[in-house]
Amino acid sequence: MRFSVAPDKCPRTGGIALGGETDHRSRGGRLMAGSAFAIVGSIGYYAAYAILVATALRGSITIGTLTFLTGALLSSSASIQVLLSLSSKIGDQFLFLNDLFMFLAVQPPETAVGQPNGVPTGLFEGVARSGIEFRDVSFSYPGTDRPILRNVSFKIDPKERIALVGANGQGKTTLVKLLARLYEPSGGAIYLDGVNLREYPTEALWERIGVIFQDFVKYEMTAGENIAVGRISHLSNVDRLRDAARASGADETLAKLPNGFDQLLGRRFEGGVDLSGGEWQRLAIARAYLRQAGILILDEPTAALDARAEHEIYTQFSDLATDHIVLLISHQFSTVKIAQRILVLDEGTIREEGTHQDLLARGGLYAGMFELQAENYR
């Protein structure tokens, strides 16, 4: 599903805010109803208690009968409160189901139903021919006036390795999500092989983009299935799975598992084996190797690994992806150095651009961040 962003609309549901207004109305109605029931219940309880006391004072009932009826009244009041509480919880669960049904009913907006005339086929063959170009791309999340990206323009040549550097919140991850069409730009456009991304069939575009984010998913399936998620058509191709595991370093983890690729992972099911954070990350990176997409994006997927392991994985990944466009996002400058070109993002714009040595020689923002990190190792 592609996520389009429009004012006052949710970016994750093709412009539909799931149940927002309905939830507010429903919760408001339940609050009013609950308050009314509570008031009526309290008045009824104390009125009944007063009637019992008055009846006992007139001598119509004995003290023993009064004690028994008072206890019964208190018990029934507590039971009614429990029923009201359960009704409120059931109402909350129905709201969750309502959001689920609305989400399942969402249809993503499509701007391309097939490959349009004139669209180059390079991407669909696995390799971009003339590269990627961002033209005055801007992006803001709905509900805020603060732009995440401001008129960003740059080009990526075919087979080029690009590193995106900057402090947290400067738009690095947003930029690659726009490239993957998980979001749509608020302004400007992104071109692949000279054609606007909006003109490409979405499914075909996603087939040729491999993305590993920092918040990757841990699939509680077998180890082989965890890797095969990257290209499900290779699920039965043990050789391809083994090559992907070797490239990411996950083969060492698999060698320790009792059943190798057939070992069930996670603790949800009986017989499952849990892995460390770093081991899960290596499996996630193996998916990117298996995918062998024309555009490969790594957004800090090695955060749980030490600096040496991260550098080894990125270096090996770069060597294996010589025929592809590669975008790296990392806070480790030892890793960033392997990129052919580095883009430094600050306040939603590209402040600096060049190789590692060029940027150090300028003594600007990149050099300052590099020296600050290097100081921690001295």
Describe this structure in words.
With 378 residues, this protein is an alpha/beta fold. The protein has a domain of 86 residues. Helices cover 45% and strands 15% of the residues. It has twelve helices and ten strands. β4 and β5 form a beta hairpin. α6 crosses α7. The longest helix is centred in the N-terminal third of the chain and has 43 residues. The two termini are 47 Å apart. The N terminus is likely disordered.
Shape: elongated
- Report the end-to-end length measured between terminal Cα atoms: 47 Å
What is the topology, as strand order, of the major beta sheet? 6-7-8-3-9-10
Outline the low-pLDDT stretches: 1-19, 112-119
- Kindly estimate the percentage of residues that lie in beta strands according to DSSP: 5-15%
Mean pLDDT: 79
- Given the helix and strand composition, which structural class is it? alpha/beta
Question: In percent, how helical is the residue content?
Answer: 40-55%
Give the total of beta strands: 10
- Helix segment count? 12
Radius of gyration: 30 Å
List SSEs in N-to-C order.
HHEEEHEEHEHHHHEHEHEEHH
The major pleated sheet works out as:
6 strands, mixed
Which oligomeric form is depicted? single chain
TL;DR of this structure?
The chain has 378 residues and is an alpha/beta fold. The chain has a domain of 86 residues.
